[in-house]
Amino acid sequence: MKFTLTNTTLTLRPVTSRDLPALLEIYSSTREKELERVPHWTDLMKKEFVSSQFNAQHEYYQKNYAGADFWVIESGKKTIGRLYLHENFQGKGIRIIDISILPEYRNQGLGQGIFKDLMNKAAELRRPLSIHVETFNPAKNLYTRLGFKTISETNGVYHLMEWKHTI
Questions:
Q1: What ranges make up the beta strands (E) of 92-140?
Q2: All structural domains of the chain with their residue ranges
Q3: Which CATH superfamily is domain 10-129 in?
Q4: 88-138 confidence digits (pLDDT tens)
Q5: Are 84 and 61 in contact (CB under 8 A)?
Q6: Closest Cα partner for 132 from 89, 70, 72?
């Protein structure tokens, strides 16, 4: 999918195998709070757990989202996040498979700007925009503020949220 960001300080580029260490770091940052709940685990145990989870997720995404775009989000030449997007997921709309930004770049409006760009693209293509989010993920508040609605729930943990352009 051709997609550019309005924030000119950010760029998207396709993920390559050289990005895997940075993508692991980004993924690890999304699990930090969870790992605080297992203080009896050593740092090595946590690192191995996160690495195995990242590898499983990465493989799953590559296998189950054929045709998707897997992008690195950069600020300057520094990798600050990832955006995985499927333009026509199951023929039902645009699916944000994953969006993650490193902690030091959060709460600066970057994610909100990316979402607004995605919403504009969805409106242009006349497709709904959806994302799965865990109920306890703080980003769910942003999605709600932007007009996303919960349309389904899985195992009481995952909410499928959707945004539709209204005329």
A1: 94-101, 129-134
A2: 10-129
A3: Gcn5-related N-acetyltransferase (GNAT) (3.40.630.30)
A4: 998 889 999 999 999 999 999 999 999 999 999 999 999 999 999 998 888
A5: yes
A6: 89
